[in-house]
Specification:
Elements (H helix, E strand, L loop, with lengths): L6 H7 L13 H7 L8 H12 L4 H20 L8 H14 L19 H15 L5 H8 L3 H10 L12 H14 L10 H9 L3 H8 L3 H10 L6 H10 L17 H10 L8 E5 L5 H12 L6 E4 L4 H7 L3 H10 L3 E3 L20 E7 L14 H18 L3 E12 L7 H10 L2 E8 L38 E8 L17 H6 L10 H19 L6
Parallel strand pairs: 1-2, 1-4, 2-3, 4-5
Antiparallel strand pairs: 5-7, 6-7
Helix pairs in contact: 3-6, 5-18, 5-21, 6-7, 6-8, 7-9, 12-13, 12-14, 18-19
Length: 546
C-alpha cells in the first residue's frame, strides 16, 4: 500500500530523513443432505449457501446491530479512558467479547449477531472448502479458515491446495495455519536484512532500474529523495532536483558526510541509534531491565536530555524472585533519571495512569523479542495459541499511535524464523497502523545488541542472563535475529477498527485432538479446555500468566 501524503514531512524529521451459521443446519448435516443428488455446480452451491446465511433481515437485523453497538459501548464504559484514546484500547476490549461467542450459538436466531456485508459469502466459502477437503468435522481447521480473508480463501480454492491430513508429526490444522502464514508473507518484504533503499523500493513498488539509480546516490541526494518522493512526480525528476540542492552546513547529524555513499551512511544512523536527543524513549517487555540500562548509558554518553521509560510486564515481587540484581538495576536506571514501571501491558497503555499525559511525546520505542508466553503442550505456531502472538503485535502498534510523535522510531527485535511472533506479524501490524517500514538491520550489527537477554518467565530463575555476547541465550541462531525498524507517518485520517485474530471458542478447544489434548478423553479433556479458556480470558484482561 502507498504511504500517506505526510511521508515527506515525516522523513524530514527522522535522523536519517466469525463465527456464523449457514441457515439452521450444521455443516455436517448439510453435507449429508446433499449426498445422492449427483454433480452439483460448486459456484451455484456457494451462492445458495450465501443466500441462506444472509437471508434474515428487517427489523430484527436493525435491532441486532443496535444491540451490538450498545454492547461495544458497554465494554468501553467499564474502563476509564479518555475519548481520544478509546481507539487505542478498543481492539483489546473487543477480544473479550469474541472469546464468549460460543454463547451466540445457543441463542435463538433472532438474537444472534447478524452477518456483516460480505461475511455471508465468506461463510459459504469456508463451508465449501471444508467440504472439498473432507474436513467438516475439524473445528480447529475451521477456526484457521475463519481468520483468513475472503481473498485468501478464494486464492486457496483456485490453487487446488489441500491440507496434509496424514502427517505423522503435525496436525492438519497446524500445517494449514503455517501455509496460510506463508501465503501472506509472499506478498510482504522478506524477513531478512533489508536496507533503506530496499524498503523504499518495496513501499513504492519500484523496479530494478530505480533501485540501481538510488544506490548510486550520495548521502545528501538519497536523503533528499527519501524525504521528498511521494509518488506524484517521476523519480528521475526528484533525483535531478536533489543534485541541484546544496548541502546544508548546520551541524545537524542528518546532514553529516553529504558526499558519502548514500545507502551505507543512512544505515549507520539506524545501527548507531542516533535518535532524537530531546524526546523520551520507552522500552517495553524488558524483564531484567538490562536493555533499558544499555539504552540509558547510550543516551547519557550522547548528551541526550530525553528520559528512558523502562517497563516490565511482571510485578516487582516476581522480578525479585527471578533476578536477584533487579533492585540494583532499578537504582542504576533511576540514577540516570529514568522512569521504571512494573506490570505494564504494552497493548493497554492507553488505560495505564502512568502514561497519562504522554500522548505524542515518545521519540523512540523498543520491544525486543516479543512473545505472548508459552503454553505447555503446544508449539508457538499452533493455531490454538498462535492468535495471541499476532494480536500482541496488532494491539501494540495500535496503542502506540496515540503516544509516538510523528517521525518517531519504533524498533522490534525478533528472529526472522520465529513461529510465535512471526516477522510478518510485526511488519504487517506496523503498516496497518501507519508505521512505515524503513529498514531491517541484523541484530548483531546494532549498537545496542550486547545486553543480558532473558526468557521473561520462570526459566530465568535457573537460566541466568549473561550480558557478554548473548552467550546465555542460545534458543535460536543469533545470525538470524533482526531489528525491524519503523517510523510513524500518520495521515491524519481516522483508521477503522483494529483487525484482531479470532480466539478459539470453548467448543473449538474441546474439539482439539493434538498438543496437550492428544491423550485426554471425557472430563479430563473438558477440564483442560476450560482451564485454557480461562487463561485466555485472563491474558486478554492484561494479567500475566506464567
Amino acid at each position: 500500500s502507498s504511504p500517506p501524503s505526510s511521508t515527506p514531512t515525516v522523513w524530514a524529521r527522522l535522523p536519517f530523513a466469525t463465527r456464523s451459521k449457514m441457515g439452521e443446519l450444521p455443516v455436517e448435516e448439510t453435507a449429508e443432505g446433499l449426498e445422492g443428488l449427483g454433480d452439483i455446480d460448486e459456484s451455484e452451491l456457494a451462492q445458495l449457501e450465501a443466500q441462506l446465511a444472509g437471508a434474515e433481515g428487517g427489523e430484527e437485523e436493525a435491532a441486532a446491530v443496535e444491540e451490538e453497538a450498545a454492547e461495544e459501548e458497554d465494554h468501553l464504559a467499564g474502563v476509564e479512558v479518555e475519548e481520544h484514546l478509546k481507539d487505542a484500547v478498543e481492539g483489546n476490549l473487543r477480544l473479550k467479547r469474541l472469546l464468549s461467542r460460543d454463547e451466540e450459538e445457543d441463542l435463538p436466531p433472532g438474537k444472534r449477531r447478524k452477518l456483516e456485508p460480505g461475511e455471508a459469502q465468506k461463510v459459504a466459502k469456508i463451508n465449501h472448502l471444508l467440504t472439498k477437503w473432507q474436513l467438516t468435522a475439524d473445528a480447529v481447521v475451521k477456526h484457521v479458515c475463519e481468520n483468513c480473508t475472503l481473498e485468501e480463501l478464494e486464492e486457496m480454492d483456485k490453487s487446488g491446495y489441500c491440507p496434509d491430513k496424514f502427517n505423522q508429526w503435525k496436525s492438519t490444522a497446524e500445517i494449514f495455519a503455517r501455509y496460510v502464514a506463508d501465503l501472506k508473507e509472499r506478498k510482504m518484504p522478506a524477513g531478512s536484512a533489508c536496507d533503506a533503499v530496499a524498503a523504499f523500493k518495496f513501499r513504492w513498488k519500484l523496479d530494478f532500474s530505480a533501485d540501481k539509480l538510488l544506490r548510486a546516490l550520495s548521502h545528501k541526494d538519497l536523503r533528499y529523495v527519501l524525504t521528498n518522493y511521494d509518488g506524484s512526480r517521476e523519480l528521475n525528476d526528484i533525483i535531478e532536483e536533489a543534485k541541484l540542492v546544496d548541502a546544508e552546513r548546520d551541524n545537524q547529524t542528518a546532514n553529516a558526510l553529504p558526499d558519502g555513499e548514500g545507502v551505507s551512511t543512512i544505515g549507520r544512523f539506524t545501527r548507531l541509534e542516533l535518535i532524537d536527543p530531546l524526546a523520551d524513549a520507552a522500552v517495553f517487555g524488558d524483564a531484567n531491565l538490562t536493555f533499558a540500562m544499555k539504552l540509558a548509558r547510550h543516551r547519557k554518553a550522547l548528551g541526550h536530555v530525553g528520559r528512558v521509560i523502562a517497563t516490565t510486564f511482571e510485578d516487582h515481587p516476581t522480578l525479585q524472585e527471578r533476578y536477584k540484581e533487579i533492585d540494583e538495576s532499578i537504582k542504576f536506571l533511576e540514577d540516570h533519571f529514568a522512569e521504571v514501571y512494573h506490570g505494564v501491558d504494552c497493548t493497554r497503555i492507553a488505560v495505564d495512569e502512568r502514561f497519562k499525559g504522554m500522548e505524542g511525546s515518545l521519540g523512540s520505542v523498543y520491544y525486543n523479542f516479543p512473545h505472548s508466553g508459552a503454553i505447555q503442550g503446544f508449539f508457538d505456531g499452533h493455531p490454538i495459541v498462535n492468535w495471541r502472538h499476532e494480536n500482541l503485535m496488532r494491539l501494540f502498534f495500535r496503542a502506540l499511535r496515540s503516544f509516538v510523535k510523528p517521525g518517531g522510531f519504533v524498533k522490534v527485535a525478533s528472529n526472522m524464523g520465529a513461529v510465535g511472533v512471526r516477522y510478518s506479524y510485526i511488519v504487517g501490524s506496523a503498516l496497518e497502523n501507519e508505521f512505515l517500514h524503513i529498514e531491517t538491520v541484523p541484530f548483531l550489527q546494532w549498537h545496542l545488541h550486547r545486553y543480558g537477554r532473558s526468557y521473561g518467565d520462570k526459566r530465568d530463575v535457573y537460566k541466568r542472563p549473561d550480558a557478554k555476547n548473548n552467550q546465555s541465550y542460545n534458543a535460536q541462531a543469533a545470525d538470524r535475529d533482526m531489528v525491524y525498524c519503523f517510523c510513524f507517518a500518520p495521515s491524519g485520517e481516522t483508521l477503522g477498527k483494529q483487525h484482531v485474530k479470532l480466539p478459539p471458542t470453548l467448543k473449538t478447544l474441546k474439539s482439539c485432538i493434538d498438543g496437550p489434548f492428544k491423550n485426554l478423553q471425557g472430563m479430563a479433556k473438558e477440564n483442560l479446555a476450560n482451564q485454557l479458556f480461562k487463561r485466555f480470558a485472563t491474558e486478554i484482561s492484561g494479567t500475566h500468566v506464567g
